[in-house]
Design the sequence.
C-alpha cells in the first residue's frame, strides 16, 4: 500500500538562474485517495477473486453443499445455486465484483453453469499467481490464456455431439442433470418431462435453426402441495382474480379478447369542469355515463368474446354489464402477461375499443379461476398451438418451492441452450478431464513462456472434476489419477462418480449437459481472468468531501479487501 506521502511526486526542477535544485512537491491526487501498484495490486485482486470462487466452489455438483443467506431484515435463502448466492452477497471489492459479472453473464446467456464459470475463473487466477511468483509477466500469461481459450473452444466443438428437438430422451437427461443436487431430485423425472415439453411447445425452426425465446416459458410458483404436483399449462397462468362475483368462474371454448385500453369513462385531455345545477341534470349525467359504458361493453361483446383480459381498469358498472352478458373478465393484467396471452391464444391486443373486431379474438379450450394456496388465479388452458406456456411449480414450504423454481429454471434454460447450439457433451467432469489432456498435448507444440500459461490453463480446467471428487468424500487425488489414466486410454466420456466414489462412464449414466454451458463458461472466465491480470494500478477515490476533508477508506486496502475477503 502506498500512503498519501508516497503519492507525492518530488519533482526537482533546475533553476536556470541560480543553478540549484528546488524540492517543491507536486500533488497529483487529492488527499484521502489510496493507491495500490504493481504486484501488490495484482495479488490483492487475485486474492479477492479467489475468495469469491472459493465461496461457491463447495456448492458444485450433485453432492454440493448448500449456503444459508440471511439478509439485513432477516429473510433467509437456502440454496446451492451459484448465481443466487452471488446475487444475494453484498460484495464490495471491485475485482470480486468482476467475478459476480462472470456469474451474471453465464446466467443471462445460458441460465445454468454459473458455479462452473466462477470456480474456473478463480482457478485461472490462482494458477496465474503461481506464474507471477516465477517472474512471468502478466502480459505473457494473458496471451497464453487467450491462445488456450481459442484452442479449448475448438476442442469442445469437436467433442460435442448433435442433438435435435426430436431427441426427447436426451433432452430429458439434460434437464435431469441440470436439476440434480438442487433439492428437487425426488421428482426430477416428472419435472424433466414438464421442462422438455414446455420448451418443445414454444420452439420454432427458422432457416434450419431452432429458435426459442426464454420469456415464452413462464415459471409461476405457489407453495402448498407436493413437488410432483408441478404441472405444465398449455397456455398462461395469471395471478389475478375474476373482477365480479356474478361472472362465470369457468368458461369452456373461450373466445378471448385482449384490451390495452380502459373500460372506463376517459377524462378530458384539457382542464374542464361540468356544472350541474339541478337534480334532473345530475340524473341525465349519470344516465349518459351509464349509456357510454354500456355501449363500450356491447362493442366488446359484439366480437363474440366470452373472456376479457384488460391491461388497464374496468369500471364497476362495466363489470356489471359484462357479468350480465356472461363474460369472464380480469383487469390490470401485466403487460408481459398480455403479450404471453397473445402468443398462447392467437389473440391480438386491441388498443382501442372502437377498432376491435372478430379477427382480434383468440381461443383457449378452457379459462377458469382456481384458488391455489389461498389465492385466486386465472388459468388459460388448452390453447390450440400455444407459443407461450406456463409451468406452475408447487412445493411444501416457501424454501422448497423457491429452490424448485431455481431447479426448473436451470432445467428449462439448459434444454433451450442444448437446442439452440444443437450439441451436448458428457458431464461429471469428463469433458474437462479430456479438455485438459488435449490442451497439455497441444502445449508441447507451443514454444516460449506462453506454454507455461497454456499448461496452467489445462490444470485450471481440472478444478471441476477435482471439486466433484472432493464432494464425494473420497480422496480427490486418487480419483483424478484414475480419471487421467482412463482418458489416456481413450475413455473420453469417463467422469467422477459422485454417488459411489471413483469414476464411471457418464454417457452410460445419462449425465449430459449442453455444450453452450462449457463454451460460455470458458469464454467468460478466461476474459475476466485476463482483465484482472492486466490491472497493475488501483486508485481509490476518497469517500466524499472537498480537499482537506480527510476522506477515503480505512487503512488496509479497498472496501471488501483485507479482513472480510481474505
Sequence:
Amino acid at each position: 500500500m502506498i500512503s498519501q506521502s508516497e503519492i507525492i511526486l518530488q519533482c526537482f526542477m533546475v533553476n536556470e538562474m541560480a543553478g540549484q535544485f528546488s524540492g517543491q512537491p507536486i500533488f497529483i491526487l487529492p488527499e484521502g485517495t489510496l493507491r495500490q501498484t504493481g504486484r501488490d495490486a495484482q495479488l490483492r485482486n487475485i486474492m479477492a477473486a479467489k475468495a469469491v470462487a472459493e465461496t461457491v466452489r463447495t456448492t458444485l455438483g450433485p453432492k454440493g453443499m448448500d449456503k444459508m443467506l440471511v439478509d439485513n431484515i432477516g429473510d433467509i435463502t437456502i440454496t446451492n445455486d451459484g448465481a443466487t448466492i452471488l446475487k444475494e452477497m453484498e460484495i464490495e471489492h471491485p475485482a470480486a465484483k468482476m467475478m459476480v459479472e462472470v456469474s451474471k453473464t453465464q446466467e443471462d446467456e445460458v441460465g445454468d453453469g454459473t458455479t462452473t464459470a466462477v470456480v474456473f475463473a478463480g482457478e485461472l487466477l490462482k494458477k496465474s499467481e503461481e506464474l507471477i511468483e516465477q517472474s512471468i509477466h502478466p502480459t505473457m500469461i494473458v496471451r497464453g490464456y487467450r491462445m488456450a481459450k481459442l484452442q479449448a473452444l475448438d476442442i469442445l466443438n469437436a467433442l460435442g455431439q448433435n442433438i435435435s428437438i426430436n431427441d426427447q430422451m436426451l433432452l430429458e437427461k439434460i434437464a435431469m442433470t441440470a436439476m440434480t443436487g438442487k433439492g428437487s431430485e425426488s421428482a426430477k423425472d416428472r419435472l424433466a418431462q414438464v421442462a422438455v415439453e414446455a420448451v418443445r411447445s414454444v420452439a420454432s425452426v427458422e432457416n434450419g435453426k431452432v429458435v426459442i425465446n426464454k420469456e415464452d416459458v413462464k415459471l409461476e410458483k405457489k407453495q402448498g402441495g407436493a413437488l410432483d404436483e408441478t404441472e405444465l399449462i398449455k397456455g398462461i397462468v395469471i395471478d389475478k382474480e375474476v373482477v365480479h362475483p356474478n361472472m362465470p368462474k369457468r368458461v369452456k371454448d373461450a373466445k378471448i379478447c385482449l384490451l390495452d385500453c380502459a373500460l372506463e369513462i376517459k377524462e378530458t385531455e384539457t382542464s374542464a369542469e361540468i356544472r350541474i345545477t339541478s337534480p334532473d341534470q345530475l340524473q341525465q349525467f349519470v344516465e349518459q355515463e351509464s349509456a357510454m359504458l354500456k355501449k363500450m361493453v356491447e362493442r366488446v361483446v359484439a366480437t363474440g368474446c366470452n373472456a376479457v383480459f384488460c391491461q388497464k381498469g374496468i369500471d364497476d358498472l362495466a363489470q356489471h354489464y359484462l357479468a350480465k352478458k356472461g363474460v369472464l373478465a380480469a383487469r390490470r393484467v401485466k403487460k408481459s402477461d398480455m403479450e404471453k396471452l397473445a402468443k398462447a391464444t392467437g389473440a391480438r391486443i386491441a388498443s382501442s375499443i372502437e377498432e376491435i373486431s372478430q379477427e382480434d379474438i383468440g381461443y383457449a379450450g378452457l379459462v377458469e379461476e382456481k384458488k391455489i394456496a389461498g389465492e385466486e388465479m386465472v388459468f388459460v388452458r388448452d390453447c390450440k398451438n400455444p407459443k407461450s406456456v406456463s409451468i406452475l411449480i408447487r412445493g411444501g414450504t416457501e424454501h422448497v418451492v423457491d429452490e424448485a423454481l431455481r431447479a426448473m429454471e436451470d432445467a428449462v434454460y439448459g434444454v433451450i441452450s442444448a437446442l439452440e447450439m444443437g450439441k451436448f457433451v458428457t458431464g461429471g467432469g469428463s469433458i474437462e478431464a479430456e479438455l485438459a489432456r488435449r490442451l497439455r498435448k497441444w502445449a508441447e507444440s507451443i514454444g516460449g513462456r506462453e506454454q507455461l500459461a497454456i499448461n496452467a490453463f489445462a490444470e485450471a480446467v481440472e478444478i471441476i472434476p477435482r471439486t466433484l471428487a472432493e464432494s464425494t468424500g473420497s480422496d480427490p487425488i486418487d480419483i483424478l489419477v484414475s480419471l487421467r489414466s482412463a482418458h489416456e486410454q481413450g475413455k473420453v466420456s469417463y467422469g467422477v462418480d459422485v454417488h459411489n466414489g471413483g469414476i464411471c462412464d457418464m454417457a452410460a449414466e445419462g449425465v449430459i449437459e449442453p455444450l453452450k454451458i462449457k463454451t460460455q463458461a470458458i469464454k467468460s472466465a478466461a476474459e475476466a481472468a485476463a482483465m484482472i491480470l492486466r490491472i497493475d494500478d488501483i486508485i481509490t477515490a476518497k469517500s466524499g468531501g472537498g480537499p482537506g476533508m480527510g476522506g477515503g477508506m480505512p487503512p488496509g486496502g479497498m472496501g471488501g479487501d483485507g479482513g472480510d475477503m481474505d
